[in-house]
Design a protein that fits this description.
Leucine-rich repeat, LRR (right-handed beta-alpha superhelix), single chain, mainly beta, disordered N terminus, seven-stranded parallel β-sheet, 52 strands, 627 residues, rod-shaped, 0% helix
């Protein structure tokens, strides 16, 4: 064989090392090094190291290339980095049994290789070694291969058959990514890890066999394998990382092994055909958006040990009808069940302390909902657009209702607010059109802007003792609102708070006159404003409204007090034009008060009350209230 020094071999590396000796002047040592010479043998350039040959380049015309097993009586043991990089003229390559290592990028973009033989002693194939060999159709990886680098055979777009030897330990990052013609893969039992994006974008991949040796499935491992229809994850797998199967549009059946502890973020997102899933007892955590947009998912059985469900984990699972949450779950994250239209009944376990923002947003079919006793936080828009929800009892530990929380809950007719509630956010009950009466607990300090705007069936509002601020437009457009009772702490009522409440007849203040924003009350026929004795700041008119002292009494010494010919009765005294409802009950221990009559105090300060049915009861008690 003829040997010659290539042009590249004439290059030398000069390295100057300056070493100063002494303080002011020194001696300078100059060292000259020469790089290992690159030598040509036929169509190959190479170098030698420790008596073996590494092929470093190819200068031939292409076509069929048989790499020699010896050069200059030395064994060829390595194909160097980028040795055949972009050799588009190659069609067939045979790598001899003498080769142990194939370097990084060694055959990258050899786009016309259609036949490849890898020798039976190769142990390592480098990063992107055969990346974008787009004409390669059949691949046999020998049993000798232990490692293949990142994207080793990525973007081999015509690769349709792969046989993997039995000693490969990991399908490392991107190893077969974008091999869009590959229909099936049988992973050998030596593999313990399916790496990052290993099969990402293998659009034709319909069948994959994962052996019991695999412990982990990494990020993006099989994402966008759009032809994959079924999948069995063996019991050996402990972790499925984020995006692993995202965008497997045709994945209809999946079995998750009994050792999986974590399902990562967006793991099964956009698996549109997936219709049922069983989360094993081993699972502790389900990541954010793990099953988001699985629009056909109707049934999901969850293991009892799950403690964490991430944000939007089941969002847009349109067919999901029921979800039994485990008793160890600590929270429901933001948007967890967003737009689960078919969800009808839901029970929150007592272990849950937090319901996140938008947790049940747009669950339009949700009809029954029971909170766990330990829920202390309900986030913004948590139940927004739950238009079928009729009744709710908020747990006692909840101190705040966030912005938009029950907005557009148009069927909500009854809600029980907890005594410990401190604040009600902006738009909290906006357009909750079914509400007829709302009782604001005594500890609420602030009611946000537009909190009850457009609650068109709301007729009565009672505001507790601690409320100081009512926001702008809070009760605006509550067309059926007739009566409001304000607690003693009210200090400010915001702009347009009761604007367009066209049938509002009376507002009753228990405390001092508050400060008013602009256009607080409806125009036209203005409601009467009633205030209590021993309060300050009241004038008549007050804020363009007639202010009336609420002081009804039934003088016991009046001659009309008692039994008369037409029933039991008495006179009621008080401010003129004041409207009073007289209620009665038969038992003060467990009273059930019922209205008996509605009286209006005349201009003379008097009104007569008569109870013609008093003889129907052994005893009756009476009281006054606002209408």
């Amino acid at each position: 064989m003829k040997l010659s020094i290539s042009r590249a071999a004439t290059k030398t590396l000069y390295c100057l090392i300056w070493k100063y000796i002494g303080k002011t002047y020194g001696l300078v040592a100059l060292f000259l090094f020469a790089s290992a010479a690159l030598v040509r043998a036929g169509d190959f350039t190479y170098n030698t190291n420790s008596g073996t040959v590494t092929i470093t380049g190819y200068t031939g015309t292409g076509g069929v290339v048989n790499i020699p097993d010896t050069i200059a009586d030395k064994q060829v043991t390595k194909i160097g980095d980028s040795a055949f990089y972009y050799c588009a003229s190659l069609t067939r390559v045979t790598i001899p049994d003498s080769v142990l290592l194939i370097g990084d990028l060694a055959f990258r973009n050899c786009s016309n290789i259609n036949n490849l033989v890898i020798g039976n002693k190769v142990t390592s194939i480098g990063n992107q070694a055969f990346f974008s060999c787009s004409s390669l159709t059949n691949l046999i990886i020998p049993d000798s291969v232990i490692t293949i680098g990142n994207s080793g055979f990525g973007s081999c777009t015509r690769l349709s058959k792969v046989t993997i030897g039995n000693h490969l330990n990991s399908l490392i990052n991107g190893i077969f990514s974008a091999c869009i013609s590959l229909p099936e893969i049988d992973i050998p039992p030596s593999v313990t890890n399916i790496g990052y994006a290993a099969f990402m974008g293998c659009y034709s991949l319909a069948t994959i066999t994962i052996p019991n040796s695999v412990i982990s499935i990494d990020e993006w491992a099989m994402s966008s394998c759009t032809n994959l229809s079924s999948l069995v994850i063996p019991d050996s797998v402990k972790s499925i990382q984020q995006y692993a199967f995202m965008g497997c549009y045709n994945l209809a059946q999946v079995t998750i092994g009994n050792s999986v502890t974590d399902i990562g973020d967006q793991t099964f997102r956009y698996c549109y055909r997936l219709d049922q899933v069983t989360i094993p007892e081993s699972t502790l955590s389900i990541g954010s958006s793990a099953f988001s947009d699985c629009t056909n998912l109707a049934t999901l059985a969850m293991g009892s040990h799950v403690t964490n469900i991430g944000n939007q984990a089941f969002s847009c699972c349109y067919r999901l009808t029921k979800m039994d949450l485990p008793e160890k779950l600590n929270k429901i994250g933001d948007g967890t069940f967003y737009s689960c239209y078919s969800l009808t009944n839901f029970i929150v376990p007592d272990s849950v302390t937090r319901i996140g923002n938008e947790a049940f947003l747009n669950c339009t079919g949700l009809f029954s909902f029971v909170f766990g006793t330990n829920v202390s936080f309900i986030g913004d828009s948590a139940f927004r657009l739950c238009s079928s929800l009729p009744n709710l009892k908020i747990p006692d530990k909840v101190t705040s209702i966030g912005d938009w929380t029950f907005t557009f809950c148009t069927s909500l007719t009854n809600i029980t607010l907890p005594d410990n509630l401190i604040s009600i956010g902006n738009y909290a009950f906006y357009q909750a059109a079914g509400l007829a009466c709302i009782m604001i607990p005594d500890h609420v300090v602030n009611i946000g802007n537009m909190a009850f705007q457009w609650c068109t069936n709301l007729s009565t509002v009672v505001i507790g003792d601690s409320t100081t601020n009512i926001g702008a437009s809070t009760f605006q457009y509550c067309y059926h609102l007739t009566r409001v009772i304000m607690g003693p702490g009210i200090a400010y009522i915001g702009n347009s708070a009761f604007s367009a409440c066209s049938v509002l007849s009376g507002i009753y203040f228990m405390g001092n006159a508050p400060t008013l924003g602009s256009a607080v009350f409806p125009g036209g026929t203005l409601p009467f404003v009633y205030y209590m004795t021993n309060t300050t700041g009241w004038t008549n008119p007050w804020g363009n409204h007639q202010a009336i002292l609420w002081n009804p009494q039934a003088p016991p010494n009046d001659v009309t007090f008692g039994v008369q010919t037409n029933g039991f009765g008495f006179k009621i005294t008080g401010s003129s034009n004041m409207v009073i409802v007289v209620e009665a009950c038969t038992n003060l221990v467990n009273p059930v008060w019922v209205p008996v009559s509605t009286n209006t105090i005349g201009t003379n300060g008097l009104s007569n009350f008569r109870d013609s049915k008093w003889t129907d009861y052994p005893m009756r008690y009476y009281r006054f209230r606002a209408p």
